[in-house]
Predict the 3D structure of the following.
Amino acid sequence: MELKQTISTARRRFGATVVAAVALACMAGTAIAAEFKKEEWVLVASVINTTNPYMISNIEGAKAMSAKLGIPLEIVNSNNSSQTSISSILAVLASGKKPIMFVNTVASSDAPTIVDAVGKAGGFVTIWWNKPADYHPADVGPHFVAFQKHPGVSSGRCGAKAIGDALGGKGGVVMLPGVQDSTTSQTRVAGFEAEIKENYPGIKILDSRPSNWDPQLGAKNARDLIVKFGSDINGVWAADDGMQIGAMQSFENAGLLDKVKFASDGLYPTTLEDIKSGRGGNAIVGETFHRGYMASAVGLYTAYLAASGQMDPATQPLDKRESLFKLSCLTPANYKEYLKYDEPDAPAKFIEQLEKVGPWAAEPMPLVGGGAEEMPK
Amino acid sequence: MQFVLPKEWKGPAALIASIVVLAIVFTFLNPRFGSLENFRNILFQVAVPLIIIVGTTLVIQLGSIDLSVQGIMGAAGMAWILLSANTRLETDYGIWAWVIGIGIGLTLGLLAGALHSLIKVPSFVVTLGTWYIGLGIGIILYGDAMLPSLKSDVLMAWPTKLTLGLPNAFWLAAVILGAGVLLSRYTHFGRGVLAIGNSETIASNTGMPVHTIKIIAFTLAGGLSALAGILATMQLGAGSPDLGSGQLFTVIPAAVIGGTALSGGEGGIMRSAVGVFLLIMLNNGLVLAGVNPAYQSGVFGAILIAAIVAVARPDRGILKIEK
């Protein structure tokens, strides 16, 4: 009986050892098959246009990443058009090399087409900022490595806090959202409105005029709002700096710049100059800090880890597939802390940091959450 | 009104009447609409499209179309700001900034006119090409450096500054408009444009210099788009290749609404200018009236159709857009 049991145990052990050995052999085989050869790959960075400072910074990050990894880079300029974006990406994919891709999508609906094409080409892609709400990397497959963004709600809250505090909790503000049906604009608007409602009951939102991320339209709407509300406007919030630049010019032309406080998102170089110089009696009171080069570097690096087999997207937790990265509130009091991130060698330094700590822990934009962005009630 | 006014005035008069009706309604909805401040605001906003529409109208009267407006605006605006005192470069070439900025527009216009007239490339295609060439020049000039802002407070303040109670930007547009009307009505060139638009064959058979007239019209249109780009840059205080964004779809509808038929040989610069006023005022009025932004585009379209139907009813033949 005892002998029987021993033999049976020995058989089971032998069987388990064989299974383990076969499994190991298979894994080794996979590893050999998937050995990462740089010359088979190409980095691709697709941006919405090449005139917006944020997009220019996206390109800068991609160039620095290409230099660091020693993999050639293709830039796709979508010229603000989904059609151009998709057809240009398809053209790059047809070149035969496998893509490691970062895409700043023109419209949410572009994401599935692009992800699908990248999958067929044997590549890996990270999408930034826009994707359909019900389209999740985990459902699609490992080639859709991740969707990444900064939370828009935090951005709106930063602006609301800055204006609310600067006005001492009392006064009238006007809002200049971006393109009305853009998720980015909608979340920023929701954050702004929620913060005002919750913490600054003495602030009244007088009006809101979507200005399509366009400085000219921002300037035009600001002019109309100045006529409509005159000196009742104490604060102006814009969903990005482009529109704020236009709006500030209109208030300056109307001789009102030093009577109104501004807050927005993106800290464009021009905006930083205005904060430094204290333009309009320190008219700008709040901004958010995030940089395009950081987004493209994190996006490309995440896709690179998947492509090179150092990370398996399929086994990652949700927050690493649909990621929200920290957004810093910047004010005239703390802006100096962020100047180092605008030095000429900042992209290269940021990438060195990525290599050390991985894409989810790099300062100043560590991972802070995952899944769909929660809208305030 | 139909019985009192001569035929050629009926269209514009009805259009002006519809502007007056809209102005009364908007003032009723928000009294600030009728204020002097808003009047100046509207005049400031019409300045850029008014300058463009002088050229647009001449080209449409020929029976052609000029799509290059936005590209040329971007190229000229960027060239002008980089050659004027700005935050990016230490250069200030003064008057040469204007010469080169407008020169870019004239050159692209000349190129489009010559290709269209001499090699018979459709104007739709050739000006689409010059649009992108202009945009390309703008993007190259923009590069990847900092957004250039104007340094000179005098230049930045100039468009808004009041002369005889009205903003300088509007005076500049008014001078261009006046010159355009004189050119169109009282010169061989102006009459030639209409003649070619009516029938190129007849115009050619009567010995009219058809090629020259066409090339001049496109060159002028290019130069005026460039001037508009410079003015828009001054208004914004900063340069951007996308500066002209949306202008094409203000000026072409404005010309058609004013009664300048896309088939050519009809209409006039003043009529198109009235169309510009209608579109700009409508947008301004909707903001002041507090129309919910979500409904603004829809309401804009509905009022526009209503206004045009009311205006055009007796003159359906003139509009020639029933197809």
Remarks:
- Chain A has a mean pLDDT of 90.
- Residues 2 and 8 of chain A are 10 Å apart (CA to CA).
